[in-house]
Amino acid sequence: MGAAMTRHILHVITGLAVGGAEMALYRLIQAFRNSGYRHTVIVLTPGGGMYPRFAASGITLIVLDVRRAPVTDLIRLVRLMRAMRPDIVQTWLYHADFLGGLAARLAGNRNVIWGIRTTDVDGGSARSTALVRHLCAALSRWVPHTIVCVAEAARRSHSLLGYDAGRMVVVSNGFDLSALTPGDDGRAALRARCGFAADHVVLGTLGRFNLDKDYANFVTAAGQLASSHPRLRFLMIGKNVDAANTELMRWIDATGYASHFVLLGERADVAICLSAMDIFCLSSRTEAFPNVVGEAMATGLPCVATDVGDVAVLMAGTGVLVPRADPDALARGVAGLVALGPAHRRQMGQQARARIGAEYTMACVRERFERIYEGIMAEGER
Fold first, then answer.
1. CATH topology of domain 177-359
2. Domain 3-174+361-381 annotated CATH 3.40.50.720
3. Which residues of 3-31 are buried (b: 16+ CB within 10 A; e: fewer)?
């Protein structure tokens, strides 16, 4: 695609907090560098932990504050889209699907791609989010040309909710293997800082503290394991996963093995954090397509994960799958991996990394989106 044919993709996202959708958007734009596509991002709410990363990499950002001035900003959104005349408007998360999609159609742009990132439509959502989701379901036959779901499980749950299944396609997340190549130096330094000995087996988890991540499940399972596995240690990383979290600390104290837990809170060096682990654990009660499992696999870690969303599809037998909300099953899954020994665990980790390399690289994701973009634009030009 020559310079004269540069296509403009305008992304609209609810905010730039540290999360799966935000990370997926960032990686997608990076994957399109030096291509025939130009990307601009409109953010509906200010702030967020990912903002500096987007800004530092030279991504064009326009920040609104729709919570403060919803009507004014919707009008501004329409005007921006009319002025920019993007080839495609791609929206991320429910509020952006609703407002961004509506603004695009009001601006006369029919090339709208919605993005669905969750599977759990029954619980755990704020009432306003549930309302916006129902509005989106009602508008799904008119506003978007294509609805991109991050997981097969997300496609199923939203078509049951009334979204137009005929417009849905699944594009899973992708991972940058080069950025997730573990280094022995980083591993040794972080393990030393955490007080882990060379013969400790470190079971790690990574993600923000919220109900969906079900850290109570992880802590309960860890407490059961600690008594029978004295060399096992538990590394927990994520926003609000720290000593200031009284609820979490209460659960950990109740195990009687608080000294076996290390909590590091939110960190930016995900690859190093993962490299310090020997086994990765996902204890969630709901997910769509958990980035963190893909990242752990790409780092070469064997994983024990709850059977939620598309985890089974992602791991494809390279890790241990257990039922959700079942600490006994989670503990058994981890114990099985510990019993295999380090050589066998490394072999499993290499199989997991090979799977990511074969099916879930950013090159694969870029190719899938490029096909979607080209298909939509070709249709519009007919």
1. Rossmann fold (3.40.50)
2. no
3. eeeebebbbbbbbbbbbbbbbbbbbbbeb
